[in-house]
Write the structure tokens for this entry.
Amino acid sequence: MAKTLFEKIWDKHVVLQEPGQPALLYIDCHLVHEVTSPQAFEGLRLAGRKVRRSDLTYATVDHNVPTTDRSLPIVDQVSLQQINTLTQNCSDFGIQFFGLDNPSQGIVHVIGPEMGITQPGMTIVCGDSHTSTHGAFGALAFGIGTSEVEHVLATQCLVQAKPRTFRISLNGSLHPGVTAKDVILYIIRTIGTAGATGYVLEYAGEAIRKMSMEERMTICNMSIEGGARAGMIAPDDTTFDYLEGRSYSPTGKRFQEAVDYWQTLPTDPAAQFDRELTLEIGDLPPQVSWGTSPGMVTDVTGNIPNPEDSSDPVEQKTIQRALDYMGLRAGMPVGEIAIDRVFIGSCTNSRIEDLRAAAKVVQGRKVSSSVHAMVVPGSQPVKRLAESEGLDAIFREAGFEWRESGCSMCLAMNPDVLQPGERCASTSNRNFEGRQGKGGRTHLVGPEMAAAAAIEGRFVDIRNWDRD
Amino acid sequence: MEAFVKHTGLVAALNRVNVDTDQIIPKQFLKRIERTGFGQFLFFDWRFLEDGSPDPAFELNRTEFAGASILVAGDNFGCGSSREHAPWALLDYGFKVIIAPSFADIFFNNCFKNGMLPIKVSQTLVDQIFEKVAAQPGYQLAVDLEAQVIRDDSGLEIPFEVEPFRRESLLRGLDEIGLTLKKDAAIRDYEERREVFR
Ligand code: SF4
């Protein structure tokens, strides 16, 4: 029978399927971070249980960590306690730990792929909603809560009802300067923040096939913002080339055997999806979020919506609330929005390609005097590679801060926080009220758009901005 | 886990869509390493003014909602992060049941793991409940998981769906990890035939 990529992986991981019951699914890879795991380890201890497969469990610290000089002590005592708790838990339960002083430390969704831990055909979970990122490799990867983290630690399995499948095909070639981030923002804008609830998304089409692994990760990363359980992309030569030679990738003959298997994973031509959508993205302008939900997105060439344009009173109220919070005038052009801060980072856009693209925009230019801008590489390896290419110097000379790796101002659990009323062009994934700091105002954009906003102090259309 | 069979309680209305986990429990409170004590921080940024006093404009601060244990809200409740701190905070504050037209996936799942019942009902019915809450201070609902029905004392009757396995494990307050551990033989069997490429 013809199967989708999702179905092939699902079927291969069912340990037990009793009629009328959810499946017991085997998990190949469990990623752990400091915020959603302490209560799970505590639960194990209380019940006297062990970690079943510490060899399939990988931990790092990312959410809380300072992005300033790592040789200094951590000031926030509560953060420190969470970091220490994970360090202790990893040592007690024998889990591989990429801690603060480890050369591979970084955001969990950056380091998994980077080390080749993430591979096609795997089931991957993490107590983090953006686990969907790993689906870019043709893995089934999704976020779980702390109770399920404990369940996986104890059993290496999860009890799961089978989600439905939804394919989004993207046709056309992107205009230079328009990126994967614009595409995923446009998808969420189109389907809505609950548009894919209950589904696993598969992204397909010529535009996806042309994308690099970094771009595919950006797309899959934000599947959750469209409500999806997971996002996936069929593996191909781009995937295999990326994985070859990484520290956890198979080597030699084993690599070829793996590729032979991975090549069987893509969706069969006759396979059926529960839902299908095709989008033309050839004329897509850069996208900018204007509100407090990731579906509140418009073209950079567009205007801020007017609540009165909607006939639905609840929607009117929602738009008005967002405008009030964001301090925006209905109908104003996006190009008139003045920016105070720029954040280039997060598991959506902090990989080497993102930094290269942003560096190209800022090279030889200066950050606007009214803007405070920072770059936070996704991992230590990204940071080192960028430095070896001289990107740090480009950013610094332009007036950006160059930081250590971590989640940083994506969720502002560490000292990287917006002040009330500050407006930020951010390459992260969520623009919720207070996400980057209480009263802070977030506009989600791609890395080039964020970089150009830093220079101009406002949003510009990167397509016809003078790039020399 | 505590079992959930029937619950009757005061209803609080939060008529907003896309209530996200960052609002339910802002990140500055995620640093605790326990499961308890999060109720005091529930909806912190909406609930309290700069000086720490309750914001009278926030729905849950209305006197008639004090002691509410059933929350009714708009579409896509619980969207955002996977943090289980969100249901922990709602539960610790006193909510046992959440009724909305739709929920974000991970949040929905997390509720069941903590003896809470999220119930999906149509927008029309949610609107009806909103109207009743507005019209009748002290409005209560009775939720019966066994019969899968929500009732009030003026004859309202809303049947609802729950996946049978979720219903079962809530009704009996099952330890899901314990249940899976009993399937150890099947798991070991799977591990033997499992292909790995490393
Ligand atoms: S970068 Fe942001 S979205 Fe990604 S894992 Fe960290 S906090 Fe979550």
User: Anything to note?
Assistant: The radius of gyration of chain A is 22 Å. Chain A is about 30% helix and 15% strand.
